[in-house]
Design a protein that fits this description.
By secondary structure, the chain is mainly alpha-helical. 60% of the residues lie in helices and 10% in strands. The protein starts with a helix and ends with a helix.
Length: 189
């Protein structure tokens, strides 16, 4: 499994686009790491213990670096409006990509519309129609009042939802409203 992770990390480092990575591979790596952690420090041979420790440190480095590389590529693709092969992403990355892409599109639309009207008017309209929330419980995807799909969600996810949906989730204790400094955003909208 170590050599598989190394190849994935190496290929990601030496390619321009995002490389294929699926949930099953990550699950296999997770199981491998758990098995190695159970062995850490258990051998009578100090060299074996040291090798296991070094291997775990290398795995940790590669996973962190792999994550950063993929996020950089993902956000660059969103910024440049370059299409990403959805099946190359893990389920969490796919969700992040889709929500971030939608948020960037909304901000872009808001930015363009602010050039055609007053900033404060567009800003107020946006925050009258949408509420930023933190999700408290795992939930399936929902169809918003604006007929767009939101989710699925895990606890601690942050999102912006249509007011009607956000208020319903807050009322039923599935979410809490996030307090944000709206004056900060006025400079950008």
């Amino acid at each position: 499994m170590y050599s598989s992770l190394y190849k994935i990390w190496h290929d990601e480092n030496h390619s321009e686009g995002i490389q294929k990575l699926d949930d099953q591979i990550l699950e296999n790596i997770r199981k491998y790491v758990q098995a190695r952690k159970k062995l850490e420090g258990k051998s009578d041979d100090k060299v074996v213990n040291l090798l296991i420790k070094e291997e775990l440190q290398n795995i940790s480095f590669m996973l962190k670096d792999l994550y950063e590389l993929r996020m950089t590529k993902l956000f660059k693709a969103i910024q440049t409006e370059k299409k990403v092969k959805i099946d190359y992403l893990t389920s969490d990355e796919r969700k992040l990509y889709e929500t971030t892409q939608e948020s960037v599109r909304k901000c872009s639309d808001l930015f363009v519309s602010s050039a055609q009207g007053s900033k404060s008017e567009n800003f107020s309209n946006f925050f009258n129609q949408y509420i930023p929330v933190r999700i408290l419980k795992e939930m399936n995807a929902i169809v918003g009042a604006d007929l767009k799909t939101y989710g699925p969600f895990k606890p601690e996810d942050l999102t912006i939802l249509p007011r009607k949906n956000a208020e319903s989730l807050i009322k039923h204790e599935y979410a809490v409203e996030i307090s944000i400094n709206k004056d900060f955003f006025k400079n950008f909208i």
